[in-house]
Amino acid sequence: MSSKVLLLQRRVALLTTLALLGACPPLVVDGGADATAEGEGEGNGDVDVDSSGLTADRVVAPADGLAVVSVTVVVVDRAGAPVTGRAVQLTATSSTTGALALTAPETTAGDGRLVARLSALRPTTVTVTADVDDGVATTRLGPLTVTFSPCLSLEEAFVADVWGPVFSRCIGCHNEYGLAVTPPTANRHVLRFPGDVDFAAHNVDVLRSLARQDVTPGLSLLLALPTGQVGHSGGVVIAPDSPEEQVLATFVERLRREDDVCGEGAVAPLEAALADLSLLSRRSTLARARLALASQPLSPADEALPLATDEELDAALVALLDTPAAANRVVAIYNDWLWTDRFTREVTRTTSGVNQLLVRLAAQFGPRRFYFQPEGTGGQQCDPATDVCCGEAGSPYPGSCVQPTAGNNAADSLAREPLELVRHVWSEGLPVDTLATGDFTMANPYTAILYGFNPQAPEWTFDDVNTAANDRAEFHPLRLRDTPANELVAQPGVGDRFPHAGLLTPHAVM
Ligand code: HEC
């Protein structure tokens, strides 16, 4: 696998992880609270199948979405005594593949019990059986069914789905000091504000008892009053037939049920959000990718690709990543972030008309920053009549005098140093951390000269085509060292090596 694919996979993995952290609903266990199952058939051994059995209990459904259920096996003998130290083989089978874990001791403890933990990452139905050594053969206990379903608890649903659209509109009157609670009204509908202790738990308790009171048989007080079906001093707060009424009605329904663990028909937010999604065809996916990464429509060659399998799509995407257009796009993305192109002549001319970067580097490069300027007094001005420097702050010659194109090329190349490092890392498939740890910079003949190297230097790796078009694009990795044009105070223990740190140390970034 090329490291670019690896790079891509890492980024995709990072994004998916973030999305999941944000959206993954906790799994809860349906019917697990007191689900029990007894043994089947009559064993020949000492185990009493009728009094032995399996139970499941929800332990936790923490925010990481990993629901844990404790499964307890009780083994009792025909005399009614707990059987200790007895070998039990627990088996859990899931209706879906993967993401299921069962940890269990091998034998029953002193009280004839064996407690196992069952956890699932995905919604699934799990069938648990226990094969107990009964002295002669094995007796099977179970099956016990545990459902991990991805819906929200009442408290979670209150916070996530119901508070905002419905009850945030009631609390103005229905709080401790609100209109609805003013004596002589003995109002039971007193809500707590977000951030109060037990915000969700308290409010769900209050609302549960209101929801279970009928104004007419089957019509809940909690639904009837705010929707104006019965006189309410607060008036019609929730418009009949509105989406809010639907949210309230569904929640009231759930509050009225005796056995709500998860809520029959309660839809997980993630499922609901994804329900209407359908995947693009492979060719449309490629078209999107080409537009996003290369700013190009599908080519006739793309149209002709078979794309019958995901592998073929992957191959087409990898080929797309190898194009110069994709590299340009990545560079553009990094420029959006670093905005180092503000130092290019094209941009600076519209702002202050100077090669800002070169000017800033007066101390660093000394007179050499004018290496590419036309001849004149001091070797740096482009108008011998006035001695005004080209490319200096306040120059009235943004381009009307002898325009120092080579000076612009040098300034542009210096500005592009960090982005060329990005291009290099991308194109060579280097690890992403090279962007921060690279012990080299990217230079072309212009910047190499600025940094004090000449074609005789051992570091000079550039070709002999000395045209601006060629030189501007000819970026090579270069390890800087102390040169007369790039003076460095010797670093303790390091000497006069130039300390590189990838993107962090080029002049355009510092
Ligand atoms: C403008 C103030 C106001 C708003 C807003 C308001 N109410 Fe009321 N509500 C009252 C008052 C006053 C009472 C007591 C007199 C009555 O029953 O009409 C009351 C009573 C109730 C009762 C009866 C409580 C009991 O103990 O019998 C319920 C249920 C109720 N409101 C639900 C709601 C819901 C649900 C909302 C929000 C969707 C809401 N109210 C918004 C003022 C308001």
The tally of structural domains comes to: 3
Q: Give the cofactors and ligands.
A: heme C
Given as residue ranges, the uncertain stretches (5+ residues, pLDDT < 50) are 10-35, 60-65, 263-267, 392-403
The largest sheet has its strands arranged as 2-3-4-7-6
Q: Tally the beta strands.
A: 15
The radius of gyration is 36 Å
Descriptive tags:
binds heme C; 5-stranded antiparallel sheet; 18 helices; 4-stranded antiparallel sheet; 510 residues; Immunoglobulin-like; extended; alpha+beta
Verbal overview:
- The strands form 5 sheets. The chain has a 5-stranded antiparallel sheet, with no helix packed on it. Strands 1-9-8-5 form a 4-stranded antiparallel sheet, with no helix packed on it. Strands 10-11 form a two-stranded antiparallel sheet.
- The chain is extended, with a radius of gyration of 36 Å.
- The chain has 3 domains: 28-149, Immunoglobulins (Immunoglobulin-like, Sandwich); 154-261, no CATH class; 338-504, no CATH class.
- By secondary structure, the chain is of the alpha+beta class.
- It has helices at residues 3-23, 154-162, 199-211, 221-224, 243-256, 269-275, 282-294, 300-304, 310-321, 324-338, 345-351, 356-360, 362-365, 405-415, 417-428, 434-437, 445-450, 468-473; strands at residues 28-30, 35-38, 53-60, 67-74, 88-94, 100-103, 113-120, 124-133, 138-149, 214-216, 219-220, 381-383, 388-389, 441-443, 476-478.
- It binds heme C.
- Heme C (HEC) binds at residues 166, 169-170, 172-174, 179-180, 185, 187-189, 210, 221-222, 225-226, 232-234, 237-238.
